[in-house]
Amino acid sequence: MELNKETATLQDILTKEKYIISIQRLDSCFRPYFAHTGHSVQGVTTDKKINIFDIESEIVNDRWVWTALTRCTSINNLNLVVENTNVKLNYDFERMINNYKSQDIKAKRNITNNFITKDDIMEMHKKQKGKCIICKEQLNLSPIEGDGKNLSVDRLENSLSHLKSNCQLSCIHCNVSKK
């Protein structure tokens, strides 16, 4: 990707075609609805809901709450969330699945509508009782963080893509070690 003040040039990894789009368009397409920070909305007043996630973490302090409060037109629009696991999990799984798609495209493996989904991963996690299929250690449901081993999707047949029928869950260590 090439960036300048007004445009971004993106290149398709398969066809090598280049697309030029405005920075404003790029920002509107790729900025998640939940990605605004207190700094990015500085000086803005909004009548929309403002959520502060992980209010009990060490990085959220009273200044963040005050900043959010001063952005709201009503105190009823300020939502303090102790933990929002669903939002985090959805984001983690979306990132993980997109990474697998990129790997498969790069390796020229066929991507079909049977590609693994978050629901498939959740179903496998339940079926495997939350354990790595190889070492039987507890897996984190979140692929990014937690107390157990990090979850990964292991392909049974490495020549095939990450299809639901070709996958099982393992920890990253076992998945990488078996190669």
Question: Which percent range describes the beta-strand content?
Answer: 15-25%
Q: Tell me the major beta sheet.
A: 3 strands, antiparallel
Indicate the CATH topology of the largest domain.
His-Me finger endonuclease fold
How many strand elements?
Answer: 7
Q: Can you tell me the CATH architecture of the largest domain? A: 3-Layer(aba) Sandwich
Main sheet strand line-up = 1-2-3
Range of helix content = 25-40%
Low-confidence stretches: none
Provide a short characterization of the protein structure:
The chain is α+β, with helices and mostly antiparallel strands and 179 residues long. Helices cover 31% and strands 16% of the residues.
Could you please describe the fold and organization of this structure?
The protein is α+β, with helices and mostly antiparallel strands and 179 residues long. The chain is built from five helices and seven strands. It has helices at 23-30, 62-71, 85-106, 118-127, 172-177, and strands at residues 2-3, 7-11, 18-22, 50-52, 78-80, 151-155, 167-171. Strand 4 (50-52), helix 2 and strand 5 (78-80) form a beta-alpha-beta unit. The longest helix is centred in the middle third of the chain and has 22 residues, at 85-106. The protein is flat, with a radius of gyration of 21 Å. It starts with a strand and ends with a helix.
